[in-house]
């Protein structure tokens, strides 16, 4: 594991994907580097006020950017942006894939872009962990995979958003994110199930989780989801359906490495059931509701 960064000199940074994660990251990049270039379907005066320069479309952004961070849900959305003009420029371009995606898919995309642009467009995968609260605070863990020189530039660009670390060649960041999401899914599944067990046993949930949060059950996920687990309010933040997508990427890694996983298939089955029940767009703490409403097959 190598943590690298180099100073930015004359590098123009762009961001596409200004959702719950991308918008605060763009704000940190604008403040950290003096400016950042963005494009979106609607005006973002809030980001412009913090130093962002908004462009009409991806082609206009590509005309000025040296590095573009793509904070999009997955590779199909990345392909849409590429088709919409992000490749229209004639200058060298480094794409930072912030999406949580398939490692083989990212590698295939990079190989295709290298071939089609004659090496002009390079790729670093840079998925993040820490949720929207980490994006707002600028404390994200950023898992990078790619060539050392490209990751050094990516680290310098992304430093205002958290801790960027190169973990290996292209795709390594996505493998690390799949591992991260396996732990997240296992933790939130256990927290939801434990909450139902305690509630049906007459235990005060707030008191119990305050107590257990001081022991081995402590986790950042418990800290950030405790209130939701206690109240049952699973209004969306980190949606359950995205965990299912990420678990599928983990299953892909398991297959590629010949790993006969024990926990991963059970988690996949649980989150497939959650999504099939129409709960996929709820916060991941919906695991409490899912277990509470679940019925044994007749």
Kindly describe this structure:
It is a single chain. The protein is of the alpha/beta class and 298 residues long. The chain has 13 helices and nine strands. The chain has helices spanning 22-33, 45-49, 58-62, 75-86, 103-117, 131-137, 148-158, 172-200, 205-212, 220-231, 240-256, 263-276, 287-293; strands at residues 13-16, 36-39, 52-55, 67-70, 93-97, 121-125, 128-129, 140-145, 162-168. Helix 8 crosses helix 10 (220-231), helix 8 (172-200) crosses helix 11 (240-256) and helix 11 packs antiparallel against helix 12. The N and C termini lie far apart (50 Å).
Strand content: 5-15%
Q: What is the succession of H and E elements?
A: EHEHEHEHEHEEHEHEHHHHHH
| End-to-end C-alpha gap | 50 Å
- Give the strand order, joined by hyphens, for the main sheet: 3-2-1-4-5-6
Q: Helical percent range?
A: 40-55%
Write the CATH fold name of the largest domain: Rossmann fold
How many separate domains make up the residues?
2
Low-pLDDT windows of residues: 1-6
Q: Which homologous superfamily in CATH is the superfamily of the largest domain?
A: NAD(P)-binding Rossmann-like Domain
Please supply descriptive tags for the structure shown above.
298 residues; alpha/beta; Rossmann fold; N-(1-d-carboxylethyl)-l-norvaline Dehydrogenase, domain 2; 2 domains; six-stranded parallel β-sheet; three-stranded mixed β-sheet; disordered N terminus; NAD; HIBADH-related
């Amino acid at each position: 594991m190598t943590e690298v960064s180099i100073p930015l000199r004359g590098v123009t940074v762009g961001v596409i994907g200004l959702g719950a994660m991308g918008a605060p990251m763009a704000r940190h990049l604008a403040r950290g580097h003096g400016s950042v270039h963005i494009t979106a379907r609607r005006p973002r005066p809030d980001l412009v006020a913090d130093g962002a320069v908004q462009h009409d479309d991806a082609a206009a952004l590509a005309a000025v950017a040296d590095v573009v961070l793509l904070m999009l849900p997955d590779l199909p959305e990345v392909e849409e942006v590429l088709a919409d003009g992000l490749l229209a420029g004639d200058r060298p371009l480094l794409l930072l894939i912030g999406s949580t995606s398939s490692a083989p898919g990212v590698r295939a995309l990079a190989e295709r872009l290298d071939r089609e642009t004659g090496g002009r467009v390079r790729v670093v995968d840079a998925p993040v962990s820490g949720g929207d609260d980490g994006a707002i605070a600028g404390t994200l863990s950023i898992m990078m995979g790619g060539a050392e020189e490209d990751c050094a530039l990516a680290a310098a660009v992304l430093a205002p958003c958290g801790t960027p670390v190169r973990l290996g060649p292209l795709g390594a960041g996505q493998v690390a994110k799949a591992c991260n999401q396996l732990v997240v899914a296992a933790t939130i599944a256990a927290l939801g199930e434990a909450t139902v067990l305690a509630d049906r046993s007459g235990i005060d949930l707030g008191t119990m989780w305050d107590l257990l949060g001081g022991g081995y059950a402590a986790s950042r996920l418990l800290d950030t989801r405790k209130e939701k687990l206690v109240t049952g309010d699973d209004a969306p933040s980190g949606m359950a359906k995205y965990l299912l997508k990420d678990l599928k990427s983990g299953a892909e890694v398991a297959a590629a490495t010949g790993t006969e996983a024990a926990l991963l298939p059970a988690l996949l089955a649980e989150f497939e059931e959650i999504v099939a029940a129409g709960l996929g767009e709820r916060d991941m703490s919906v695991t409490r509701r899912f277990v509470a409403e679940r019925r044994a097959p007749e």
